[in-house]
Amino acid sequence: MPDPFSTLPSPLPLIVLESIEDLSTLHHLLQASPDASFIFRKYYCAITEAIFSNFVPKLQELLRTIVAIRSGLCTSDVFNSPKALGNFLEPRILKSSFDSKPFFSASAKPLRNTSASLAAVRSLAKSANHVHSLSRSFFEVHLERINNIKPSYLLDQSYHYSRKSKLHPPEGRRYEPVKCGNPSWIEEQRVYRALWRLVLYFDLVSISKPSQGDINEVWELLRSEGPHGAWSRLPRWELLEMDCVYEFLVESSSVKSSSSDHSSHLSQLPASELKSITVPQPTPIQNDTLRKWHQSILDLNHRNDAASFFNSAQIIWHSPLYRFSIDPFLRLGFVIWDLDKMGRLGLADLSPVHLPPWDSEVYWVGPFKRKTLGDDVWFRWKSLVGEDFNVPGAQ
Question: What are φ and ψ of residue 117, in 5° steps?
Fold first, then answer.
């Protein structure tokens, strides 16, 4: 069968390649079409930059940094000391999420054929294909987990945690949460961001590994502290997102092995066996609904509602979650889910979200036809990790 690209008149093949919206699709096309691969070899930077334009700015910077490292554009000094590595990453991808001012860094400059190598860009597309498959695996596993939880609600809605709560434990009853469906755009973006940061971490581990008998401070740091060694300056909630994804990878396979092949560590990770090829969701048009459910582009630069809730509950002395570890909730993906999913699980206070009556019924959990408030939310979270309350019967 002739290559369809060979029948297209110039410049249509280039226009088609520049119209691709994600790197995973580019990878599949280059594998399938020799003519597309030939055109890509001539215009690979322009095509890749056109695809980058579909991504949020911080992800663009991260991808350009990976290309720079894989192209060998970094001096050996960068990988010899943690301080030098931090100085290299700081202006590129460690900009504080609180800083909304635009800035231009070395990695913000478009890719050029004179600097970015073809091999590095092709390997990035290959990595993107596996990152997408890994994200599918992550969501399959974690959606199954949250769709099988059975939290408990407070039977006495007037109950308040206090010093007496240990003497008079509250009574609860299990309920069946509303089933959660496909991930939203912002949930996908949190997982993609974490996975690409782990890709860079794996690259740094591979590149900084010293020869036998030599000592490399960067390699020692990355080996002892894991991904936090490269990303210690990130906001805490972004570290938690990465921890959540990294924990999934550690559970699924041996990700700590390294190799000189930049993509080999990815190929060892568990990819989802999809029935059909899927692609990442395009960036949605911003509207009031996205902002109401904290699913907008701006919300990507802030901790999600579940992380904010836990952060507050963890420091309130009479909360049942006071000084509690977030680890059990990381395993359920709570730092990834948006407000809609946490509402469907009955684990979010939706009182600030003004829902019309025909929409609010889906968020009714337990026998109470109203939004969960106050101590009941604390109680429901705590019920997922241990029953220090009375359960008189099952619903």
Answer: -85, 150
**Contact in structure between 43 and 17 (CB atoms under 8 Å):** yes
- pTM score: 0.87
Q: Which residues of 24-35 are buried (b: 16+ CB within 10 A; e: fewer)?
A: bbbbebbeebee
pLDDT tens for each residue of 30-39: 999 999 999 9
Residue type, 338: D
The answer for residues whose C-beta is within 8 angstroms of residue 158's C-beta and 6 or more apart is: none
What integer pLDDT is reported at residue 379 of this predicted model? 92
C-alpha to C-alpha distance for 96 and 36, rounded to whole angstroms: 39
Q: Cα 230 from chain centroid?
A: 17
Contacts of 48 (CB under 8 A, 6+ apart): 23, 26, 111, 116, 121, 124
> Can you give the pLDDT at residue 89?
79
- 3-class DSSP state of 282: coil
61: nearest Cα among 20, 29, 90: 90
Between 225-239, 342-356, 367-381, the lowest mean confidence (pLDDT) is in: 367-381
Residue with tokens 């809609």: 340
Local structure of 374: helix, strand or coil: coil
